Structure formats: structure tokens, C-alpha cells
Model the fold of this input.
Amino acid sequence: MGDSEKKQIPLRLSAKLYAAIAAWAEDDFRSVNGQIDYLLTECVRQSNNNGRYVSTEIDLPPELDIE
Done:
């Protein structure tokens, strides 16, 4: 699959996580989908650079304190 081909996947997010990503995406002038793609790409890039994920606690659910 080339870079121009995109794979569609279903994704379920909590309402709080979606709202946080949507606000972040708006700040960065991206769509929510574009923001998720960007964030995942950056995580993979960092993992490839140093062999570690962004967080050592990646499997813990995030504590979102967003109203």
C-alpha cells in the first residue's frame, strides 16, 4: 500500500477524548481525522527513532480533566 492509499478503520473514542482531539485539531487547523493521523505518525516516527513509545505508560487510559 502506497502513501497515497489510505486504509479505513473503525475507531471508537470516548466523548472526552474526541472533544480533546477535536479542540487540538482546530488549534492546528486540521480535521479530527487529520489530527489522529498526524499524532499516530509522530508516535511511530518517535518509536522508530529511539525504540520507545511517547509514553512508558501507553497502555494506561488517559486522565482527561476536560469540561
